[in-house]
Specification:
10 strands, Rossmann fold, binds adenosine-5'-diphosphate, binds magnesium ion, 7 helices, alpha/beta, 4-stranded antiparallel β-sheet
Length: 252
C-alpha cells in the first residue's frame, strides 16, 4: 500500500465569474520513504495541493488516502514548511518552535526539551532567545524547519522552502535537508517539496511530478535515477533538468 494516495482531486474556489477551477483530476501516489518534488508554473495549484494533502483544506471532489485511510481532518503526521517562514515576530526562536507542540498538547517541560533538540539539529544552538528580526533569511528558515521537525512528523511538506533565500544559503540548506531525511534518528520518512527551481527538484528528489496549469494536473511523473550527492556537473543532471523544463514549456 502506498503511504499517500491522491485520487482524482478537484478543487474549485468561488470566484466573481463563476468557479475558479484550480485542480482537476489530480492523482498520484507517494511510496513509503520517498522524496517527491512537485514542479509547475506559478498559480497551478501547488500550494493548494499541499493544503489538501495535510488536511488543512478539503477537496471539492476526490480523495486523499494516508496509509489507506481517508484524510478528513488535519493529518498530525504531516508538518508544513513555508516559503515565507511564517514565524511570529513577537516570539523568540524557542517560542516559535514550541507553538506547534503546544497545539498538539505537549506539556511545557516536554515542549522545551523538544525545542532544544531540534534547535540543535538545525544548527541554531545559541539562538534560542533571539527574535526573528535578528536572524538572516537562512536562519529564519532553519527555525521554520525546526518548528516542523519538532512535531516529529512522518511526512514533511515543503512549499518552495528555499525560494526566498540567496543561492549559496539555499545550497547549504538543501544539503542539510538531505542529511535530515537520511538520518536514522529523524522521524521524517517522506518529503514532498514544491519548488519552481527545477535544479532543486533534480538534486533532491526520487521522483518529480510535473503539473500543468489551468487547471492543475499531473502531466509527467519522472523517476530520478541519479546517484547522490548530485550536482549539475555530473552526468545526467542537465539532461533531466532540460527534460523537465521542456515538459513545463510545452504546457505553458
Ligand atoms: P501555486 O502554489 O501553484 O502558485 P496556489 O495553489 O497558491 O498556486 O493557487 C492556485 C490558484 O488558486 C490561484 O489562482 C489562487 O489565486 C487561487 N487560490 C488559492 N487559494 C485560494 C483561496 N483560498 N480562495 C480563492 N482562490 C484561491
Ligand atoms: Mg504556491
Amino acid at each position: 500500500m502506498a503511504l499517500l494516495e491522491l485520487k482524482g482531486i478537484c478543487k474549485s474556489f468561488p470566484h466573481a465569474k463563476g468557479n475558479l477551477r484550480v485542480l482537476e483530476d489530480l492523482s498520484f501516489t507517494v511510496e513509503e520513504g520517498e522524496m517527491v518534488a512537485v514542479v509547475g508554473p506559478s498559480g497551478c495549484g501547488k500550494s493548494t495541493m499541499l493544503r489538501i494533502v495535510n488536511g488543512l483544506m478539503q477537496p471539492t471532489a476526490g480523495q486523499v488516502l494516508y496509509k489507506g485511510r481517508q484524510v478528513d481532518a488535519i493529518n498530525l503526521e504531516c508538518a508544513l514548511v513555508f516559503q515565507s517562514f511564517a514565524l511570529m515576530p513577537w516570539l523568540s526562536v524557542k517560542a516559535n518552535i514550541e507553538i506547534g507542540l503546544e497545539a498538539r498538547g505537549l506539556p511545557p517541560a516536554e515542549r522545551e526539551k523538544r525545542a532544544g533538540v531540534y534547535i540543535d539539529k538545525v544548527g541554531l544552538d545559541g539562538f534560542e532567545e533571539a527574535y526573528p528580526r535578528e536572524l538572516s533569511g537562512g536562519m529564519k528558515q532553519r527555525v521554520g524547519l525546526a518548528r516542523a521537525l519538532a512535531v516529529e512528523p512522518r511526512v514533511l511538506l515543503m512549499d518552495e522552502p528555499f525560494s526566498a533565500l540567496d543561492a549559496l544559503t539555499a545550497i547549504t540548506l538543501r544539503e542539510e535537508l538531505l542529511d535530515i531525511w537520511q538520518a536514522a534518528d529523524m522521524p521524517v520518512h517522506n518529503i514532498i517539496i514544491v519548488t519552481h527551481i527545477i535544479e532543486e527538484a533534480v538534486e533532491l528528489a526520487d521522483r518529480i511530478l510535473v503539473l500543468s496549469s489551468g487547471p492543475g494536473r499531473v502531466v509527467a511523473d519522472l523517476k530520478v535515477d541519479l546517484p547522490r550527492p548530485r550536482d549539475r556537473r555530473k552526468e545526467g543532471f542537465n539532461a533531466l533538468t532540460d527534460k523537465v523544463f521542456s515538459l513545463i514549456e510545452e504546457r505553458a
